[in-house]
UniProtKB/TrEMBL annotation:
Residues 220-369 form the Glycerol-3-phosphate dehydrogenase NAD-dependent C-terminal domain. The keyword Translocase does not apply. It catalyses: sn-glycerol 3-phosphate + NAD(+) = dihydroxyacetone phosphate + NADH + H(+). The keyword 4Fe-4S does not apply. Signal peptide: none annotated. The active site is at K231. Gene3D superfamilies: N-(1-d-carboxylethyl)-l-norvaline Dehydrogenase, domain 2 (1.10.1040.10), NAD(P)-binding Rossmann-like Domain (3.40.50.720). NAD(+) binds at G37, S38, G39, N40, W41, G42, F125, A181, R295, K322, Q324. GO terms for molecular function: glycerol-3-phosphate dehydrogenase (NAD+) activity; NAD binding; protein homodimerization activity. Residues 14-27 have a biased composition (Basic and acidic residues). The lineage of its organism: Eukaryota, Sar, Stramenopiles, Bigyra, Labyrinthulomycetes. SUPFAM superfamilies: 6-phosphogluconate dehydrogenase C-terminal domain-like, NAD(P)-binding Rossmann-fold domains. This is Glycerol-3-phosphate dehydrogenase [NAD(+)].
Length: 391
């Protein structure tokens, strides 16, 4: 007992020391905040951030630079429209942006001297931006990813935050949650979860938390980020259900089994089923909102109803906004094929595999429920079979 207490005290001391070192390395306020991305969520999150920067002059500089992938909208540059009319008429029409958001199409200028970097571009556009950001950001900058996506290479899963970490050589946290952007832009209440080192998460909470946008913090940033990426696959399944005309019970089954497979997939990486993280906004709550109100759901419903491919559906329905679930579904299927070389990924992830077959291999949408009872076996011995197969 005494030994355990001593170990705990030592553990606490080591953690405090690590936090002190982390604090010493942090940039000093007032912090300059830059947002990399200006889409539907980029602009909405930008409103929350800009309001905090205006209200907390001791912590943050008032001006928030937002990098915009420049394009012409009705004969005018989007940056010019945003800086004059204070509205992103293409990606968040009808919503006024605070005047302290400054749209900037030159990436080097947008992140020059930035102490806090907020990444919110669709994940397929991220990597090429990083060398310029590295050259221009502040030396001790901290970063956070709001991007819901995933990659894969010969060594397995590559998180978006891993890509940023590697590209910039700095620590990266993640903010994920039940955050359909249009609802937050309308002023509805929402919650989010930040995963990251404690010191960073505290500062980042100051950046995002608002009276109607409640942010909690946890340490396990990988699990938070994976929840945000993987729920988009399940949302495709929910959309298939809607396209087939199934009711709420069927969709609830997809959501429940999807939650289980999200947990299992995180377990593949960490060895632990992340029950507590799944109970955060980034877990069950994001899954529910996306399966009812998200773009992935909407496009998957149209996929069942018509004969168009994903690119055509995205162009038809999203007005330039980007679908992330199909890319994530393809990447995750590659991870599963590599993790289960005997071809038995189906035994552990029947729903993810069915969704991939429907989305990319011409399987009938009605097969969405095939073999899902396999997931019940996993519940009989939670954690054990999968963790063993990974050793
Ligand atoms: N919209 C939402 O409700 C939410 C979105 N997210 C995530 O946020 C991330 C960003 O999504 P949104 O802000 O919604 O974007 P979006 O899908 O509304 O807009 C697309 C963005 O991509 C930019 N873009 C187009 N071509 C580009 C290129 N070649 N290079 C660089 N940028 C290019 C456009 O300028 C635009 O800003 C995604 O990972 C998404 O999953 C997360 C939570 C909520
Ligand atoms: O992530 C989202 C809500 O939290 C939005 O999901 P969609 O990209 O499917 O719209």
């Amino acid at each position: 007992m005494l030994q355990r207490l001593q170990q705990m005290t030592l553990g606490l001391g080591a953690r405090e020391e690590a936090e002190r070192q982390e604090h010493d390395k942090m940039p000093k306020p007032p912090l300059k905040v830059s947002i990399i991305g200006s889409g539907n969520w980029g602009c909405t999150a930008g409103i929350l951030v800009a309001e905090n920067c205006a209200e907390k002059p001791k912590l943050f500089k008032e001006e928030v630079l937002m990098w915009v992938h420049e394009e012409e909208v009705e004969g005018r540059k989007l940056t010019e429209i945003m800086n004059t009319d204070h509205e992103n008429v293409k990606y968040l029409p009808g919503v006024k942006l605070p005047k302290n958001i400054v749209a900037e199409s030159d990436l080097a200028t947008a992140c020059k001297g930035a102490d806090v970097l907020i990444f919110v571009v669709p994940h397929q556009f991220l990597e090429g931006l990083l060398p310029t950001i590295k050259e221009n950001m502040a030396k001790n900058a901290i970063a956070i990813s709001l991007i819901k996506g995933i990659d894969f290479d010969e060594s397995g899963i590559v998180l978006v935050s891993d890509v940023i970490r590697k590209g910039l050589g700095i620590e990266v946290s993640a903010l994920m949650g039940a955050n359909v952007a249009s609802e937050i832009a309308d002023g509805d209440f929402a919650e989010a979860t930040i995963g990251g080192p404690a010191g960073h998460a505290r500062v980042l909470q100051e950046v995002f938390h608002r009276p109607k946008f409640h942010v909690t913090t946890v340490r396990d940033s990988d699990a938070v980020e994976l929840c945000g990426a993987l729920k988009n696959i399940v949302a495709l399944g929910a959309g298939f259900c809607d396209g087939l005309g199934y009711g709420n019970n069927a969709k609830a089954a997809i959501i429940r089994i999807g939650l289980l497979e999200i947990g299992r997939f995180i377990e593949l990486r960490s060895g632990e089923f992340p029950t507590e993280i799944l109970l955060q906004s980034c877990g069950a709550a994001d899954l529910i909102t996306t399966c009812y109100g998200g773009r992935n759901r909407k496009c998957a419903e149209a996929f069942v109803a018509g004969s168009k491919n994903w690119e055509e559906i995205e162009a038809d329905l999203l007005g330039g906004q980007k679908l992330q679930g199909t890319l994530t579904c393809a990447e995750v299927f590659k991870v599963l094929a590599a993790e289960f070389p005997k071809g038995n990924a189906d035994d552990h992830f029947p729903l993810f595999c069915n969704i991939h077959r429907i989305a990319f291999e011409g399987a009938k949408p009605e097969t969405i429920f095939d073999g899902l009872s396999k997931s019940e076996k996993m519940l009989e011995e939670p954690g054990v079979p999968l963790a063993r197969s990974m050793l």
